[in-house]
Amino acid sequence: MASSAENRTGRLIVFEGIDGCGKTTQLRRLGQWLSEPTWPLKTLPSPPKIVVTKEPGATQLGAALRQLLLTPNEAEAMDPTAELLLYAADRAQHVACQLRPELEAGAWILCDRYEDSTWAYQGMGRGLELDLIAQLNRIATAGLQADLTLWLDLDPEQTRQRLRDRGAADRMEQADAAFHQRVRQGFTQLAERHSDRTIRIDANGNEDTVAQRVQQAVLGWERQN
């Protein structure tokens, strides 16, 4: 199991995937399932506290950074390196103020995006130097890694249709099809590199079908750990 260097009893479960894959919906569904009166994971004696969070934007600083990162700005395009540094700042604050304290208190955290998104979006998508991204991720996370990464995989053409149906898109969602294809390739490479902590979830199908796949993946992971 991947973990941070310090001792902690909590678990960090991260949802990853390209925009429009359904990860935010499935994170919410998993949180509801884990919060049911009958605790579904039987290897623990009692249910832990379930914390739902996201990147960017989980802290007060992060909320301001999220506004800068995701709001389209026609007057001034954001430099890719500036974008990378803002995401790193959001993550450093998130780890220090929420993730580490909650994990040390024994909470199970469900996080919408974490360090893999930076590698996939700013590395593969924007084409920034991967060694630089790895270094920034190490600084921002201070060694805190996901215990489990659930990668919701869906073809970019399907996600773009979902985004069109949803209406107004944020700055990242407005990127072209080639960008999102590169991001998906990034997640594919990460899943192969970190197979010890990553489970690919087929995100094709209706919400209930995908939710069942997510639940079965978590059950299987929990039995092994």
Output the number of helix runs.
Answer: 8
Strand content: 5-15%
- The name of the CATH topology is Rossmann fold
Number of domains: 1
Largest sheet: 5 strands, parallel
Q: Got a strand count?
A: 5
Instruction: Indicate the percent of residues in helices.
Output: 40-55%
The CATH superfamily turns out to be: P-loop containing nucleotide triphosphate hydrolases
How widely separated are the two ends? 7 Å
The CATH class is Alpha Beta
How would you spell out the order of helices and strands?
EHEHHEHHEHHEH
Task: Explain what this protein looks like in three dimensions.
This protein is an alpha/beta fold. It has one domain: Rossmann fold. The chain is 52% helix and 12% strand. A 5-stranded parallel sheet has the order 2-3-1-4-5, sandwiched between helices. Helix 1 packs across helix 8 and helix 2 runs antiparallel to helix 3 (80-104).
Task: Annotate the secondary structure layout.
Layout lengths: L10 E6 L6 H12 L15 E5 L5 H11 L9 H25 L3 E5 L2 H11 L4 H12 L6 E6 L2 H11 L10 H17 L4 E5 L4 H18 L1
Parallel strand pairs: 1-3, 1-4, 2-3, 4-5
Features:
5-stranded parallel beta sheet, globular, alpha/beta, 52% helix, 225 residues, Rossmann fold, single chain, 8 helices, disordered N terminus
Short description:
By secondary structure, the chain is α/β, with parallel strands linked by helices. It has helices spanning 23-34, 60-70, 80-104, 115-125, 130-141, 156-166, 177-193, 207-224, and strands spanning 11-16, 50-54, 108-112, 148-153, 198-202. It starts with 10 loop residues before the first strand and ends with a helix.
